[in-house]
Amino acid sequence: MKIALGSDPNAAELKGGVSEELVELGFEVHDLGSDDPVYANVVINVAERVVAGEFDRGIVMCGTGIGASIAANKVVGAYCALVTTEFQAERAALSNNANLIAMGQQITAVMAARRFVRIWLRESDRFDPNGRSGVKVRRISEYEKRRLLQVGREENR
Question: Are residues 34 and 107 in the same domain?
Fold first, then answer.
């Protein structure tokens, strides 16, 4: 599995710890940067490349993780969950089929982030589209597609 990582300078230490964990677990890790103080630049790059299929999953980080999750979710097809607990890491995969997660260095200790990543990736192939959460995730996707069509029609006027 290929994992893309990106952060702003505020989360470079957290990104380093997460990267070490992923390498230890045997994943192919691609660090897309942490030098840009505008986290949205790096985060959008990660999200676009995950959605395009260049990477299987993405992990984005900033000071709190909030801005990174918002920026990632602006990319059509990106489903990024802000993770601050082990339960959220599990549910990001099982209930929400998240292809990205976001974390914040000012919120999450490196050892906790490593646990969250392990849990999320362990569960990442277990989302059941026919299960209880499937209809909820489909609703989000349907809205996204409908909105894109609507915007396209408005632009062609």
Answer: yes
Task: Tally Cβ neighbours within 10 Å of residue 53.
Answer: 9
Tell me how far CA of residue 148 lies from CA of 32, 44, 134, 144, in angstroms: 28, 18, 21, 6
Which residues partner with 61 through β-bridges? 7, 103
Rg (CA), the chain: 15
Token pair of 55 as six digits: 């990477």
Give tens-digit pLDDT for 86-128. 999 999 998 889 999 999 999 999 999 999 999 999 998 886 6
- Please give the structure tokens belonging to residue 98: 């998240």
Instruction: Count up the domains in the chain and report the number.
Output: 2
Identity of the amino acid at 24: E
Q: From the CB of residue 44, how many other CB atoms can be counted at a distance below 10 Å? A: 19
- Regarding whether 134 and 99 lie in a shared domain, the answer is no
Give the global pTM: 0.90
Nearest of 15, 21, 44, 19 to residue 29 by alpha carbon: 19
- Residues noted as catalytic: 62
The percent of residues above 70 in pLDDT, for the chain, comes to 95
Residues contacting residue 34 through CB under 8 Å, at least 6 positions apart? 6, 7, 8, 9, 11, 12, 15, 42
